[in-house]
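P.,

For your records, the input lines for the assembly:
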Amino acid sequence: MTAAAREAQFPSWDIVFFGGAFMNVELSRRGFLKATGAGVAATSLGAMGFGAAEAAVAAHVRPLKLANTTETRNTCPYCSVACGIIIYSKGDVRKGERAEVVHIEGDVDHPTNLGTLCPKGAALKDFVQAPTRLTQPRIRKPGSDRFEDVSWDAALDRIARLMKHDRDANFLATNAEGLAVNRWTTTGMLAASATTNETAWTTFKVAKALGIVGFDNQARV
Amino acid sequence: MTNAWTDIKNTDLVVVMGGNAAEAHPCGFKWVTEAKAHRGAKLIVVDPRYTRTASVSDFYAPIRQGTDIAFLLGVINYCIQNNKVQWDYTKAFTNASYIIQDGFGYSDGLFTGYDEEKRDYDRSSWDYVMDEDGFARTDPTLTHPRCVWNLLKDHVSAYTPEMVERICGTPKAKFLKVAEVISECSSPTKTMTSMYALGWTQHSHGAQNIRAMAMLQLILGNIGVRGGGMNALRGHSNIQGLTDLGLMSHLLTGYLNMPTEKEPDFETYMKSRQFRPLRPGQTSYWQNYRKFMVSFQKAMWGDAATAENGWGYHYLPKLDVPAYDVLRMFELMNHGRVNGYICQGFNPVLAFPNRGKVVAGLSKLKFLITMDPLETETARFWENHGEFNDVDTASIQTEVIQLPTRCFAEDEGSLTNSGRWLQWFWPAATPPGEARSDIWIMSQIFLRMREMYRREGGAFPDPLLNLSWDYHDPNDPEPEELAKEINGRALRDLTDPNDPSRVLVPAGKQVLNFTQLRDDGSTMCGCWIYSGNFNEAGNNMARRDNHDPDNTGAYLGWTFAWPLNRRTLYNRASADLNGKPWDPSRKLMEWDGTKWTGYDVPDIAPNAKPQDVMPFIMNQEGVSRLFSRGMMRDGPFPAHMEPFESPVQNVFNRKMRGNPVARIFESDVSQFGTSDEFPYAATSYRLTEHFHYWTKHNRVNASLQPEFFVELSEELAAEKGIQPGSWVRVWSKRGSVKAKAMVTKRIRPMMCDGKTVHVIGIPLHWGFVGAAKKGFGPNSLTPFVGEANIETPGYKAFLVNIEPSTAPGGAVA
Ligand code: SF4
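Structure tokens returned:
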């Protein structure tokens, strides 16, 4: 069964559930879209070997779901299989536009996952648009039972001040023998396990230059 | 991984132990299915639970968690006893023939040099006998009684099938079946791959689990070949990258080491890092350490790193302990010796052991900064959630600043997968609200602090003031600029040493890769092993050519793999001493008389003669190590060690508890339970529908697996009067959780050392924020002890008790 036929059979199911798992490998969804373009006539689909019924469905379903979206290559951020994904968004963020994700599926051209995704990757859109996404810097004061919104400037100034204060008070320039050790043990940092290498390098530079030695990442666990 | 996910299709036998790839790495596991369908490969699973991976296996054997070393040494013993050894490979490419010092020995579960007081070994005798030229002595005939092979043979002889059954609880017949199938891969034309994950690493003896399998793979000749290897599946999407880039207390980038107090200056630091070859003519690639180190320091501090100041050596902190790892930091926090903590995309309240101690530690901080795209339990550790987080909010004086970050869909850059592929990706969406990138946030913290130090002065500002920050927009460096910095460039014209008139790399240009780095300050490179990722040819991580000549699974045109775009590590070992592939149908590399050719980038100098230069170029010997010298704190060979909390005693030494050299903090000594009080052996694991504590924020995943449960056998349920689906309480010496009981046939009681052992399985996906029902994680129960070499906390083998219960306060029954 082709993906289009399957969707015709289960039209109410969000295609997220299928991910790319049922993709026709000869003519991938991605290749299909590329080859046909949006709003394609059913006749040219017929010429590509699609039955009339499938073509009719495709002609309706495709443009509705994914026409006029921007395709972006990305990687599933969960496990280290690192499946390739295609994100379909309304708007093109790389052209400076506002963009919103409308669909995420497996990248059929990716050698590892060949378009498939597992139940985690197949539901990635829900991560991007989770109700518990954070949108605003917040601060919880000592003893308080709530977070309060705070501006970025105020948050960052406060952080820099707290850190400098602690570093100046507790930085160990020399040890008992008088040797230079230049370490800061009273503030520590855990680095993320799903950020990019470029983020990691920035984080590394700042943390090590500050002399933070209590510095680890998820690999420790 | 030594190999790639796509290479698994080339194998004949997959052994999954210490992992559950079908469930935790589903799309990678497809390559196992592929090998089974198209090569007729077999799959063996050895696990305490009959996992989803086991359900598609050809053979499953149960094992008590934490006893994998005994099992694997049992297999090695079987192979040696039955002459199932890839002899040519073992003799040529391992240190089997090396002679070991007379002082070295093993008895009563301990190696020579044990000091109970210090919980440490004096490792001086764990080494080769050297000749007058400083080379290791060998006996290629393997007859010398002190050669590694004969010591190994003797060491593993205790691990008979009967002993394996006694320790591991694996019925002898099942063990023998597994050993027999594995031993067939000693044929040069049969290959086995090992797929493992946290089921091996999260033990106080985790590194030795892995070594045991690596040794087995070596004597079977399965390292460096297609369809072979040691394949660490790794957990998170960029855990590999962050480790490669040295975001660890004891590391710098590219596995260079942080200096210690014992190394007061740069030359002293370099002195113990000469890496002179231990056999004539060997590569010992770490001899280039100085080039990588100086180039790294130049990347950090630019012109401020000079020959005179040891390339800014004192800008780096010096360690007084092996590492300020996470366990040490939380121990110090509990003692009031840590004031501030930054959690970037990290949720220690659910990730670190003994949650009670973690929350107590965070409560003692002056400030906690979190950076995440999603809510986390850590950012809200002060918030009372009834039984799920029973804290006294008003008494917690920690100031918490929660920063919203972008997620993958809004970000750009590279991630390194477990096969070491650096894959660039692009942003597709506008971040919600005021969420910002981690790069921007780190830059802002840095720029603000630098400005304060400029204005006000303060403690040793030099490394901060001189930190190289030469970006187009210092407020928000571009990912591509950072990637170029990681690759490295020439700071002056690099000329050909043989012809100084020839400029190899003009000043300011990207180096091709790390082979062009120098130790005189004329090059800079953020992370040498990644060099080649973004050179003058462009962003190689963005490449997306998926052609695969002859379907080897190499995909050399797809993104970039470190090092040097090499896809299979040690690939020179895929060919024999004459450079001919062991298995012509699975050729990877071949010597054509003058150079190495094949499907991969050779893991050796392209013109290194096969008879002369051995494949394991990172080792001073040029060969791999069956005997690891003093490299590991807990022994040059793996030896059976029980978990710290075990239902049975160590049969080799009944007094010995856990790993004899694992670090234990004073305050945790009273926190270990015994089997009288806590009779059941618990373990933690993942489910395919969830990724850690992130996907519980997604409605789809939260509805697929909505609720915390624990898994137990029908036998234990009957014994305890526990009904399927009813509430139970599970508790350890350190904490207590409530869960729904999943009574299953997937777990069966085992018989170990004459005792019935019941296993309880505890998945790790629930907390008190998100879309799923509130629940607990195994870390409420697990002990505060790390792996002896690397301090990875153990989550896979600990003791609990269980009883029928009622719903936790606030939950719907
Ligand atoms: S889709 Fe599944 S298997 Fe693929 S990277 Fe994501 S979590 Fe891993």
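Two observations worth noting. Residues 3-128 of chain A form a domain with the N-terminal domain of TfIIb fold (CATH 2.20.25.90). Chain A touches chain B through 124 residues (CB under 8 Å).

Regards
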